[in-house]
Write a structure and sequence with these properties.
With 206 residues, this protein is α+β, with helices and mostly antiparallel strands. Helix content is 37%, strand content 26%. The protein is globular. The relative contact order is 0.14.
Length: 206
């Protein structure tokens, strides 16, 4: 999963950014890691906290966002779909909860948190401190696709089978061209977001 702060470069170009950027990043990263933890925990019938899905094994700040990696080898389809639902909620919560607070503390903070997700093989480099793989590139491409804030690859995400019907109905399947990846990549996008796109943006999707 690749999170990206839309408008972060412009935010860093303000007057005396050293007075705003460190405070923003400190608060944002604390908030994001808290959201990841809380989003993947659910309350059981007995009132205990249980993992709704596995936690990521790696998090890496990329300069204007954060890369998270999960080991899905022992995760079932429903658990993988739970991660999807949690990350969408994080993107929504950024605009709904985090942004209204942070805009009172720093000038012109990024208004939107975007996220792209993809599955595939990754390979360790630097003694496990970093990873590379096509799925990371795909996630990076997806998080900057038109003005969508959230989308993920169809490959490896069988939401029709494993996601609750009411939740799966909020996504539509589209085909897009991804530079350096392929001409007809199948992706899931939020129906409400797709419907709000301008006609020229909708033309990117088939």
């Amino acid at each position: 999963a690749m999170f990206d702060l839309s408008g972060f470069t412009n935010f860093c170009s303000q007057v005396d950014p050293h007075l705003a950027v460190p405070e923003y990043l400190s608060r944002f990263l604390n908030w994001l890691f808290g959201e990841i933890k809380e989003g993947l925990l659910r309350e059981s019938h007995e009132g205990d906290k249980i993992l709704w899905a596995s936690l990521p094994f790696l998090a890496k700040f990329t300069g204007d966002g954060v890369l998270f990696l999960w080991n899905t080898k022992d995760m079932g389809g429903a658990e993988i779909c739970n991660v999807v639902t949690s990350l969408w909620e994080i993107c929504a919560n950024y605009e709904r909860e985090f942004y209204p607070i942070i805009k009172r503390l720093v000038a012109q903070p990024p208004k939107v948190l975007r996220c792209g997700m993809s599955r595939g093989m990754v390979f360790s480099v630097g003694n496990g401190e970093d990873y590379v793989g096509p799925c990371i590139n795909i996630a990076a491409r997806l998080q900057k696709l038109s003005s969508l804030t959230f989308c993920f690859s169809r490959r490896g995400f069988d939401i029709e089978k494993y996601m609750p019907g009411e939740t799966a109905a909020k996504y539509v399947l589209k085909s897009v061209s991804l530079r350096g990846i392929g001409e007809d990549e199948l992706i899931w996008v939020r129906k409400e977001e797709f419907d709000d796109l301008q006609d020229e943006e909708k033309a990117l999707f088939r």
